[in-house]
Amino acid sequence: MPPSAGHSLPDALFSADAVRQIDRYVIDQQGVDGFELMQSAAHAAFRCLVRHWRNCGSVLVLCGAGNNGGDGYLVAASARRHGLGVHCIAVAPTVKLSGDARKAWQKALADGVEVLELEALSESSLDDLFAGAGLIVDAMLGTGVSGAPREPFATLIGRCNSAPAPVLAVDLPSGLNATTGAAEGDVVNAAMTVTFIGLKAGLFTGQGAAVCGEVVFESLDTEDGVAGSGQKPVACRRDWGSVMSWLPPRPANAHKGRFGHVLVVAGDRGYGGAGLLAAEAAARSGAGLVSLATRPEHVTAALARCPSVMVHGLIHGSELPSLLDAASVVVCGPGIGRSAWGQQMLEQVIASGKPRVLDADALNLLSGRVAVPADNHVLTPHPGEAARLLNCLVPEVEADRMAAARKLQALYGGTVLLKGAGTIVASEGSALDVISGSNPGMATGGMGDVLSGIIGAVLGQIGDGQKAAVLGAAVHLAAAGRASEASGFIGLIPTDVIDALPLVFRESERYPEARDL
């Protein structure tokens, strides 16, 4: 499920504070009137409303006390002028309004909007308003709010989420941290979020990826203000379409030696499928050669499933060095367990010094050792593994996924890919990368094994850990999207994603030019 369908989004992702600073620069330094900027935002939001819900009937607009609430009052005014049925609730008492928000409220009244004070409404009246709404506009809490929503906002958020009508969120869903994507309490689950001036990073990771719905961006003609303010993005938004060109075209005289030899070290007893998923994903992702080092009892099944993979049954870690010598990239961890066999394998992989992707149990084993940074590895933890590596709790990781990825990278070096909705890639000396989009069908065992195999194959082809991680995560998500078009989300399994990889990679393929021949 991509965050935007039919709307182009910029790549730069900003913190909430940076966007506020840009807004302030546009007003103070460029002389743009703040109320005019608010009107532009409201007009943009109303355009989205009309474009997607032209026949919604009655619109229920929920307004807070700040500029976000001001946007809501102006949306209500536009709806009223265009003949839509409008109910507008002042969730924060209008006596508390000031500045541009107060001007917006006054304009709504002048345009014939009846503003209902929440404190004057009975529970039954609220029930009727929410039940009768064809669309709800959430303009309650903006980017300046942090922490769990207080009353009465928490109750209104709950009503939004249980109402039959879809929700259009103005700038961001109420209750969401615009910078981190975390939600400390209740958060509005929007069908669409129209956001302004600069894309907020929190819309694309963590809870943001789940509650924003389709994200629509409106710059409000402030591009010069973004540049002039000096505010720097905290991350770069990536997807398959924006990074597929990182894969170079293959010349007509290409041979397997040019595209890397990936060795997958995986699959202790009972977990043979993990190694096979990683190895087959590597083979389907352009690796020149793929070898699998696993337990002997898994060899027959592996060969039957994927005969293009060279499979070796190993009893002890001392058998691994000769295979490592022949490899250009190593993927280690899927299903290796935490017993002596897995520990031996990991020791040999690290000692080899080869570029490597460490996943799953390799990360769990690392968490029990003193951290030794390395420049040539890619670590791919999910939040639970990240918490073990950082010696903290999972909620601490999820409270600020970008900060957690940075901490992991600083501790272990190389490139860190923190999995989850809105996957984050951290690498020294570069901005964070956020893979925009999510797919609920990927919440099943084995998807991470597929990802590690893809990254290993791409790393063998381009030799850059950061780009390999971003490319791998992007094509993984795109393949899952392609596969779920046929199977849906509930029935999606890792082999469906592997089968879809060639179709997605085909989108990146270009005929070589004459000089490449």
TrEMBL record:
Domain (YjeF C-terminal) ranges: 239-508
The record ties this protein, via InterPro entries, to: Carbohydrate_kinase_pred_CS, CARKD, Nnr, Ribokinase-like, YjeF_N_dom, YjeF_N_dom_sf
Task: Recite the UniProt cofactor note for this protein.
Answer: Binds 1 potassium ion per subunit.
Q: Which residues of this UniProt protein bind (6S)-NADPHX?
A: 67-71, 142-148, 171, 274, 335, 382, 449
One Gene Ontology term of the biological-process aspect is:
nicotinamide nucleotide metabolic process
Q: What does the entry list as the binding residues for AMP?
A: K419, G420, A421, G422, T423, G448
Please tell me where K(+) binds in this chain.
N68, D138, S174
All copies of the YjeF N-terminal domain together span: 19-228
How this chain assembles, per its entry, is:
Homotetramer.
Q: Give the protein's biological function.
A: Bifunctional enzyme that catalyzes the epimerization of the S- and R-forms of NAD(P)HX and the dehydration of the S-form of NAD(P)HX at the expense of ADP, which is converted to AMP. This allows the repair of both epimers of NAD(P)HX, a damaged form of NAD(P)H that is a result of enzymatic or heat-dependent hydration. Catalyzes the epimerization of the S- and R-forms of NAD(P)HX, a damaged form of NAD(P)H that is a result of enzymatic or heat-dependent hydration. This is a prerequisite for the S-specific NAD(P)H-hydrate dehydratase to allow the repair of both epimers of NAD(P)HX.
Question: Matching NCBIfam families, A to Z?
Answer: yjeF_cterm, yjeF_nterm
Similarity section: Belongs to the NnrD/CARKD family. In the N-terminal section; belongs to the NnrE/AIBP family.
Give the protein name, as stated in the record.
Bifunctional NAD(P)H-hydrate repair enzyme
Species in which this protein is naturally found? Marinobacter maroccanus
